Amino acid sequence: MKSAEASGGTPHPTGLDATLLADPAARRACALLQVDLDAAAWNYRRLCDQLTPGTECAAVVKANGYGLGIERMAPTFARAGARTFFVATIDEGLHLRRVLTETGWPDAAIHVLSGPLPGTERDLLDARLTPVLNSLGDLDRWRAAGKAAGVRPAAALHVDSGMSRLGLPDDEVDRLAADPSPLDEVALAHIMTHLSSADDPGHPENAAQLERFDAALARLPAAPVSFANSSGIFLGPDYHRNLARPGVALYGVNPTPGHPNPMQRVVTLKARILQVRQIDAQRGVGYGASFRAQGPTRIATIGVGYADGLLRHLSNSGHVAVQGRCAPVVGRVSMDSITVDVTEFGANAPVVGDFVDVIGDGHDQDALAEEAGTIGYEMLTALGSRYHRVYTGGGG
Ligand SMILES: Cc1ncc(COP(=O)(O)O)c(C=O)c1O
Hints:
The protein is an alpha/beta fold. It contains twelve helices and 19 strands.
């Protein structure tokens, strides 16, 4: 986050850029979610640089741009060079088509991972959405829809190479390999598969999926190939092929767990102190009194809770940064608040209205996720709708 000095604003007593609080809605909010669009664009370009020259880099923007707002994230990636986008659902695709049309990319390719649900074919065709066909049944319905509309509709074909979740199972690949003629009736954008274990480079499933996928490709008609998600990009050129499909790394989550994060942090989450109190030894804190003070203790109540995505698993295990110093979450996470121990701050104890960093320098979404026993993906997509959201940078 830019300092007040760097952005020309007046330093605010809470350490926050005062210009951010010029907006009354920001002043009223219990928490500010700042999204750095320049960092997101930098991340897109960083992934492009990691890829073998000639490999296209798509942007996965499902789940509302991994919780950060598809309306700002998708145009940011488009400005950075993305021309192909992936969403999970048809409604996400319809929304994205509107967003990209309004922002100057009406012809971007939008691929819908969940495929053409029965009865939705016309919606997909009308919005020029490319369904990912996950079964021969999907292929049959999509061909039929194309025929009825008098077009050869665009499609992606998903082959299951080990996830056992979506995509053609082995027996359907066998049938299609024996008679690939149904594929003549669609314009095949790519054949794809999805890695189950790319975040663990030593996992034997990576090589096994590579082998199974190559075996399937050798038996199917030639088409562009899409393989890697964020972590897959870092597995090396064997996984790059024609089109990579990164999501989470674009938003700053580390695609190489256990190693330094090659991405820039996109999210900063600042929340306000609602009340500070002194409690005596043995006094309980929060629901279930799951924390008991061992001595005189100063508790700050922060205005962000599980309704805002601060998972309940952070109870008695999470941390926030107060004045740049670590302060532990004590007691259970409530719907709208958490309680942190600020005894250590003595005379410099924070006061009502001060901001603390829930996600920030030295404590990113991955660190918070680990404290919650989860992953950065869940942390970001769980972020609630109550934050005052501030987008910085142009993402150009
Ligand atoms: C099929 C598919 N491709 C690509 C992605 C993007 O993966 P990641 O966010 O790990 O980069 C996902 C995300 O779940 C996916 O389901």
